[in-house]
Automatic annotation (TrEMBL):
Keywords: Membrane, Transmembrane, Transmembrane helix. This is Amidase. Residues 90-112 are annotated as: Disordered. It comes from Pseudomonas abietaniphila. The chain crosses the membrane at residues 12-31.
Amino acid sequence: MTARKGFIRRRPFSTVAMLMVVFLLAVVWTWRVPLQAFPSIISAYTAKEYCSCRYVMNNPVDDCQAYVKQWLPSTLTESLADKRITATGMGRESSAQWQGQRQGCRLLPAEP
């Protein structure tokens, strides 16, 4: 017991740092499933909101790009022929397509 007290007294910052690392690992392990889903959320949000801005609200391209701009970079591809938006962010790709005046925009299933 005294050996542990001696280590903590001699190295208080190392002990606190090790405890913080263990705590962070426990938090990451607890939240592993939501953390894995996070990259998909970025591209899906961008595609859906941009599609709604362009085709439901009928806003110009510049306004919609400013509306969906985020801290994390993403790219947008717009197909005017079928009113489909494809967004790529954090290595994931999502698409949304305008369904009609009453339905608005809908996220499309991921292509394998």
